[in-house]
Design brief:
Elements: H1 11-18, H2 22-29, H3 37-50, E1 68-74, H4 79-94, E2 98-104, H5 109-121, E3 126-130, H6 133-139, E4 149-152, E5 162-165, H7 167-180, E6 187-190, H8 196-211, E7 220-221, H9 226-236, E8 244-247, H10 250-262, E9 272-277, E10 290-293, H11 296-311, E11 319-322, E12 325-327
Parallel strand pairs: 1-2, 1-3, 3-4, 4-5, 5-11, 6-7, 6-8, 8-9, 9-10
Antiparallel strand pairs: 10-12
Helix pairs in contact: 1-2, 1-3, 4-11, 7-8, 9-10
Amino acid sequence: MADGLRREPSINDVARAAGVSAQTVSRVATGKDVVRPETRERVIGAMQRLGYRPNGAARALKSGRYQSIGVIMFSLSSYGNMRTLEAIATEATSGGYSLTLIPLDAATQASVSGAFARLSEQAVDGIVIIIEAHILNESEIELPSGLPVVVVDSSAEYDQPVVDTDQAQGARLATKHLLDLGHPTVWHVAGPDESFSAQRRRESWRQTLEAGGASVPEVFVGDWSAESGQAAGEWLLTQAGVSAVFAANDQMALGVLHALHAAGTDVPGEISVVGFDDMPEAASFWPSLTTVRQHFDAVGLAAVRSLIASIEGSVPEASLLIPTELITRQSTAVFASRE
């Protein structure tokens, strides 16, 4: 060209080189099976000679795959969600897949369905959904057939594979740890009602108390933030007989600690506190926080491996729970009677 710039080959260039119509080239590029094998090979050859790359479809011409994974996620502010997304991206890259992320401001039926439609237009091979199960269930969203889907953090009410942290086990470890230290009961700062993870942790906390013959105190419901944890801590200080608290995440535990310190309450001398997540800062809380460690990297890795197995024709596990572990630090101590 006169200006020295090379024009990118068009679908018409490929059609002329292969001796077919532009429509036939489009059918080959989108992987449709209505094209005869010999014609398909001729079109592929023309594409390769001309360097034609139609929206990444050239990579899928022979394999039938686009080497691309879509991720639909509600809430990018959650520590756990971001760690899981990081693991998904790392494992997808290792497996030769690119990643397309669609974050949702509101997980309504329309927004989730719209995200599926957008990902379908971008020719992904499969989708990972990181979204609260209550939202999915209430939205009555029909997950697409024929497209591999893996759900992270779900109630497992879908036919698609589900990967999640063993939330019930983690809450049981936290509650039993405090009971084993001699505390008469354990108070709970729960996550929001719409969260399935929060629901599982809360139910397991209650069951563990009942199994141990302990009373079940009133629950304070927070929103995962340190601010709601501080409000919970201030409320707990108005209740009688509080000696042990299990917060459903580390951020709310941080808020509880702040409220207790502000009131001059000794932790763990007067009140022991346990969190959930084991975020990197937990070891630097004052005092360092006893908490339940979630292995977000293992969740993300398992989700991608399950999805790729589905994409490549294998049968993945229907449900996979990743175990948690209790990390004991300085925010918990043996119960000291105040009588």
